[in-house]
Design goal:
Two copies of one chain form a homodimer.
Chain A (H helix, E strand, L loop, with lengths): L2 H11 L3 E5 L16 H13 L5 E5 H5 L3 H13 L5 E8 L3 H14 L4 E4 L5 H8 L5 E7 L12 E3 L4 E3 H10 L7 E5 L7 H7 L5 E3 L9 H8 L6 E5 L1 H4 L7 H21 L6
Parallel strand pairs in A: 1-2, 1-10, 2-3, 3-4, 4-5, 5-8, 8-9, 9-10
Antiparallel strand pairs in A: 6-7
Helix pairs in contact in A: 2-4, 2-11, 5-6, 9-11
Chain lengths: 277, 277
Amino acid sequence: MNRQELTEQIFLKGSYLCVGLDTDPQKLPPHLQSDPDAVYNFNRAIIDATKDHCVAYKINTAFYEAMGAAGWEIMQRTAEYIPATHFKIADAKRGDIGNTSSQYARAFFETMNFDAITVAPYMGEDSIRPFLEYENKWTILLGLTSNAGAKDFELQNISDGRENKKLYETVMEKSASWGTTENLMFVIGATRADQFQQVRTISPNHFFLVPGIGAQGGSLSDISSAALIEDCGILVNASRAVIYASSGADFAEMAGSMVSGYQKEMKIFLSLKKPSS
Amino acid sequence: MNRQELTEQIFLKGSYLCVGLDTDPQKLPPHLQSDPDAVYNFNRAIIDATKDHCVAYKINTAFYEAMGAAGWEIMQRTAEYIPATHFKIADAKRGDIGNTSSQYARAFFETMNFDAITVAPYMGEDSIRPFLEYENKWTILLGLTSNAGAKDFELQNISDGRENKKLYETVMEKSASWGTTENLMFVIGATRADQFQQVRTISPNHFFLVPGIGAQGGSLSDISSAALIEDCGILVNASRAVIYASSGADFAEMAGSMVSGYQKEMKIFLSLKKPSS
């Protein structure tokens, strides 16, 4: 899915919401516990209930890997079930030497048909480039994350002898030349809305994937007013707040209500930015 | 496997060699191409032919993920086939917010019984800690890697206002307090033997996982003279140089010869360091 197609979906639905499928088998509603295909059926019900109000789904690979090969099979079937109208993100945080990153790119862009994968920047350009080589696929590079550990390295000062920049700023500036605004996005943590202005100065035109409304604590209003650009430019993710909105038999219905609520807010924020066409 | 058990195996075998199972289905010998279980049977033959001369195996998850769920199943069976006497590393380069890293730790330490996993440091302490919480399991954190991209971030100067350090030095120093020399190792790239002295100054007692002899170009002699400590303190990995030593029916035999050659060298280097007990 290219940027124009993604943007069209966003304005069509009035939503830049991404639903995170971080499905933990231990947190399924009681009535599903005896279902031999419980995780897949849970995901399917969540997708059915939310697809009209969101534009993307993000599958967190860790939760599926914890189930072993069977979990990978559920991940594959879930990815296949996501409608072609929706942007499919593998939240995998991969990254290795080029030879190995090529295999990860193959896994998520060919063996599975994801539109995007999250990637960690530590190993530098040649660890990222194999992902960027795919046409109409996206690399979502970690910029500034929402967790406490961001202070350990991401927020440290990098000195080039002339000026100091934060590591995450260096990552965003340097990697911008490896890809384009058509194939590279950044993960920008939502609990730091005060820093969104600064991040938009560094990357005025890149899409940001913003985790962290709901369980991780960010405010949709703060994020949107700081980071929205003319063609939207952000995907805001909610995982636990949506998929565990209810722990009962009405989990899908409640998930639907949650995303409908987010979508209503988003539609308003978007209307303030919509190109006057 | 704890440090003492690992060290005992090293001195018993006179080897600190790790064999990397980066098995690419497209590079299998022609006579295996028609085998429906070719990758697993290739791995098994490699393990049988090399186990007397190495102390560890490293499974590169990317190559298995490229095969989808079927690849994960081959990875699991390969991990089970590795003898209990050998240190089992998942070369996975994972790392995410704590809640997610806990799931990765579960995947590799519980669902599969790996002794160690490689982890990327970018997201800081809370992304690493879930791995360190497992008893007798090891977290192998990326320090300085052997690829060209190391210059992009790892080798950049971090400034704390008083002094400049490279990012990888900051990673090693800071993370040393999160774990111990009994549960934390570092990946240190072998094409930079000139920097091993400096790295040993930062971490005099940690084990290093050293990728890059063979295909990535490091010298075993340089690495060993700079990084060996009294209880060894290094695992040196060879992947492609071993598993693709021959592209014919004699692939396992040739892999065995390669590792036997490495082991003979290693035995000499070790004898110079062996504690006088």
